[in-house]
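Structure tokens please, single chain.
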Amino acid sequence: MNPFDSMKLASGDFTKSDIRIYDYIMSNQYDAVQQNIVSMAKSIGVSKSALLRFAKKIGYVGFSEFKYDLARAVHRGGSESKDFSGGRIAEIVEIYQQTLGCISEMVDEQELIAIAKVIAAATRIKIFGFNITGLTAQYLRLRLSKINIDAEAVTDAVLMSEISQQGKKGDLHIYLSTKGSDSTLLDMIEVSHSNCETLLLTMNERSKMLSGADYGIVLPTTNMLANKFFLNQQAINYVFIEILISAISQCQRD
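Here you go.
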């Protein structure tokens, strides 16, 4: 069921605030999918809590999940259609813009700061990733080196298994897994978790790997907005890494 149908089904139980939210979304669909929860609440004249209650009332776990479905429905036509006058380029750029805009909704600022402090204080850092996430692991290692934090990118599957068993108190093992569904990685992160602190960066909020992580970051994916383009999800990871590096750098100055 798309979000428009969900809203209509729940409309009989809408409060005055719910009606204002519903009317705004229906009248400003393309503005709504580009706004974060703070800017939308301000535009409608309601609180963030009202938006969260609205999302839950129509069957979503939270506002971010609702925004995802709304963006996907609008992008595919929704209750109206949109002509991308710029063609393919404009459409792909908008997909990335909308996806990146969801990072601020899905990642809590205080959680980001807590993770930044853990990274800054870690004795040894190992970053696990293979195939395409192996490149992201190398990029994170490079960016950490720029702020004088030594880390090792582990991208070989055999070495990953061995090094995951070598964690000690004070170490941090960072796992990068877009889908978060690889059973081998699940075993590795559980082994790491038994010996040192662990962080998982994924795009799957239902990943079983999250249970093996002391810290878990779930990022948005462009797949929620479009599936007709072959888009690289790592671009989202790279932007988040820049956000993370900024937070770590601030911790170092403090």
